[in-house]
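I'm stuck. Protein, please.
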Amino acid sequence: MVYPKAFLQTASIVPFLIFNTMWFRTVALFALFTQLTAATWSLQQKVLFYTLGQQLAKANTGTPNERTIYIKLAEFLEDKDTAKGLNNDFAEYDYRESLYKVMEGLNTKARAEAIKDPNGQVTVDFLLTRLSQSYAHAVNAMISRQ
């Protein structure tokens, strides 16, 4: 499916708007993940990224399956500290911060990839929107449990 350019520009900012309207320290966390990858993603990396995103979009919030997918996404970003943090039983705030780090890392890495491969822009936008929706549901579920 081909999307109009105006939609792509809007979709590109959706994850940022979702996070910015929440009570996160957006600037500080975003600064942690401003590194861009030097080489373009291999086909295997793209398939893994897309597959994990689809699994996350289908996972029920607050389940061990969802947490496992976030751990795999953190490992995909080569962020071993966040993956380890998600694996431990920390307070919900720390868990939420870890999920946010994963989302910002994915956003930055996927944007860098989309710049190098303009044909992948639609897929990246679609996936990041689905991931941000899953993240928002997870945060809302945590808030409602408090």
User: Anything to note?
Assistant: The chain has one domain: 5-145.
